[in-house]
Amino acid sequence: MKLLRPLIATFVLSTVAAHAATVVPPLPTKEPGSIAILLGVDSVQKELKLNSLQRAVLNDIRNDYRDDARKVTAKVAAGKETKAEGKAEIASLTLSSERRALRSLNADQRQRLKEIEFQVLGAYMLLSGDVQKQLGLTPKQKSKIAYVWWYGERKASKINEKFEKGTISNNERLMELHDNRTYRADDMLERLTKEQRAQLDKMAGAKFNSLS
Fold it and tell me: Rounded CA gap, 107 and 104, in Å?
């Protein structure tokens, strides 16, 4: 899918320049997305050549993750937890499920899964400290990527608030969130050199075309 040039690019850059002394907003502890959920996609399982035992183990892990995540969502909806507490708990569940899932794979499967993850997440892999290190990002590049992420998160929160207040429909919310995610991805890629872009593409390995 062809990326659109981000509308927030100029705003982000001018704000970074105007607030050079401001502490750089923190990045998430890991790139977004759940490996456990990705491993539940049939075409991914076929690509990794998982055996029946591995499929069964991963199915259990995925079901546990979804059940636990729903419980957290229900607690937040009932006012038993704040949104921040719920978000932290979901992050912990995601990390735990991913560790369990990766332990069920052999070394070759883990490597191919990482390549597929690069293809699925694209620019969002730049949020990973390990990826930033491999690409040799400068402090200035890391700072710009952090600001792009931070402003995108603020935008996403405002979009969700509009939906919760009933000023936009769910379809409109999903479209706006999709655009926001696309703009951010394009903007983060703009922070890389030509050589870094090529290296990031190389990390994705052989093309994986199906996520059905």
Answer: 10
- One-letter-per-residue 3-state SS of 68-91: HHHHHHHHHHCCCCCHHHHHHHHH
Q: What is the greatest pairwise CA distance in the chain?
A: 56
Cα-atom radius of gyration of the chain, to the nearest Å?
19
pLDDT (tens digit per residue) in 29-76:
555 556 777 888 889 999 999 999 999 999 999 889 889 999 999 999
What is the C-alpha separation between 183 and 180, in angstroms, rounded?
A: 5
36, 98 contact by CB (below 8 A): yes
Rounded CA-CA distance 173/52 in Å is 39
**Cβ(8)–Cβ(183) under 8 Å?**
yes
pLDDT in tens, 108-141: 999 999 999 888 888 888 988 889 999 999 999 9
The domain spans of the chain are: 6-26+122-212
